[in-house]
Specification:
Helix content: 10-25%
Strand order of the largest sheet: 3-5-6-7-8-9-10-12-13-14-15-18-19-20-21-22
Order of helices and strands: HHEHEEEEEEEEEEEEEEEEEEEEE
Strand content: over 45%
CATH topology: Porin
Number of helices: 3
Number of domains: 1
CATH architecture: Beta Barrel
């Protein structure tokens, strides 16, 4: 019911805050009411309290040729389930454990295929974002052309494959790949490889979410990007992680493929990179099942470019630090947060990824480069009305790009904010319905501001 009241009040306030009651306001109110009814239908369908069911996938045993070895079927099945439960990864935009597993009778090898179908319907009003996702950087002043926008998007649907090999020599080896359909332009539905890695003995080799990202430091959002100060991006990497002190402390170090985006001017030029980005973190976890944690992370970058004046290659040094965490206050309340500061770290702040601000040249001294300072933070809370079944979440996030001593034009980006509130309901353990409100603001160097609003509705089924 709370979700109904929130969306209903948004619609009413929007109408009565207008100086003139127009058909535009009526259409918005109608849409808000329809979304409210959808939320009511989903929450009404959940009439009894239940916890998330214990993980019990369907397991298909594969015989080895014509020889069927003697084995304890129940014990083997439990070992297979434990393999997948113990290697499952929780956090932002992570997939659920597979429902079907194919395994050999001795559990030397098992394979699971799965995924999810996601349909997101969104409506932008009082300013639309020029992006399939809600990225405040892409907000522009409202005109007749971008005042409103309706979208339906299924590109975040995913497929995955996970194999586990229990090797006598290497121990447990995990091979994982997954994909979505965001490989081309918006709504092109071209398959895109997200992750492809091998894990063994604490080592991860391949493509995965950057080590600088704390997967459990942000709540789930319908918006694919999430809070703008977060850093959910993928990199090619070699990473090593080790836990000690009864798994309370975890240390991670990684070398990741660099990506440099900068403003070079006429005196400098981009070249191929020579040194990977170095990332390290130290995490302390506590509580039941180590459900709460704080993490300190750092990234160091040596960014190569060519100096045309000296006809020689040179570098710019970038660095960043981050404090992040998740605190399980009670069974009913969770707190999430992260704060990041650095210079020349656009790939590690969600909002600035791909923007030309790792470093810039100074037009007053064209042979001079500066690595720009940048920072951001986000904080959010989740209230578990029915744990694992129905919850509400909301939070605030902001990012700031400092001008420093360099030159940035008046109409260039300076800062942005991201506000969200959502309600998720698991109708069944595999069928999810959610409703979300987003508000974003972008401010330029000359203090000009632009705003946008979005309502998201999600229908998602895991298989």
């Amino acid at each position: 019911m709370l979700g109904i009241l929130v969306v209903f009040s948004l619609g009413v306030n929007f109408i009565f805050n207008q100086k003139q009651k127009s058909m535009k306001a009526i259409r918005l109110f109608s849409l808000s009411l329809l979304l409210s009814l959808a939320t009511f239908a989903t929450t009404k369908a959940q009439t009894t309290f239940y916890e998330v069911a214990e993980y019990t996938p369907t397991i298909y045993m594969i015989a080895r040729g014509e020889v069927v070895e003697e084995y304890d079927a129940d014990a083997t099945r439990q070992k297979i389930i434990d393999d997948y439960a113990e290697t499952a990864r929780c956090g932002f935009s992570q997939l659920k454990n597979p429902q079907f597993i194919f395994a050999t009778r001795n559990n030397k090898f098992s394979l699971a295929l799965g995924g999810r179908v996601s349909l997101r319907t969104s409506y932008d009003f009082m300013g639309a974002v020029g992006n399939i996702d809600f990225v405040p950087y892409d907000i522009t002043p409202t005109t007749y052309a971008n005042r409103q926008r309706v979208m339906m998007d299924a590109t975040t649907s995913r497929l995955f494959m996970k194999a586990i090999i229990n090797s006598n020599t290497l121990g447990r080896v995990v091979v994982y790949t997954d994909m979505d359909f965001r490989g081309g332009n918006e709504f092109s539905y071209i398959p895109r490889l997200r992750s492809a890695y091998v894990q063994l003995k604490g080592l991860t080799v391949g493509r995965d979410v950057t080590t600088f990202c704390d997967l459990e430091a942000a709540p789930q959002t319908i918006d694919f990007e999430g809070p703008n100060a977060y850093n959910f991006e993928f990199n090619q990497m070699i990473r090593y992680e080790h836990s000690f002190l009864r798994n309370h402390l975890t240390l991670g170090i990684a070398a990741e493929m660099p990506s440099v985006n900068a403003t070079y001017g006429e005196n400098f030029a981009p070249i191929l990179q020579r040194v990977p980005d170095g990332i390290a973190y130290l995490q302390y976890a506590w509580g039941e099942n180590k459900s709460s944690h704080l993490r300190a992370s750092a990234v160091f970058r040596d960014m190569y470019l060519h100096d045309k004046g000296d006809n020689d290659n040179t570098t710019q040094f970038g660095w960043g630090v981050q404090l992040s965490g998740h605190i399980d206050i009670t069974r009913w309340v969770d707190i999430y947060m992260n704060g990041v500061y650095g210079k020349g770290i656009t790939p590690y702040i969600q909002e600035l990824t791909g923007t030309p601000y790792d470093f810039i040249y100074n037009p007053e001294k064209p042979n001079t480069l500066l690595t720009l300072p940048m920072w951001g933070w986000q904080a959010a809370a989740q209230i578990n009305i029915v744990p694992g079944v129905f919850w509400l979440a909301g939070g605030y996030s902001m990012v700031n790009l400092d001008k420093d001593k360099g030159y940035l034009a008046d109409d260039q980006y300076h800062s942005s904010s991201y506000i969200f509130g959502n309600a998720f309901c698991n109708i069944t353990p595999n069928f999810t319905v959610a409703l979300e409100y987003l508000r974003g603001m972008r401010e330029n160097m000359n203090k000009d501001k632009a705003h946008a609003n979005r309502v998201n509705l999600l229908l998602q089924y895991n298989f």
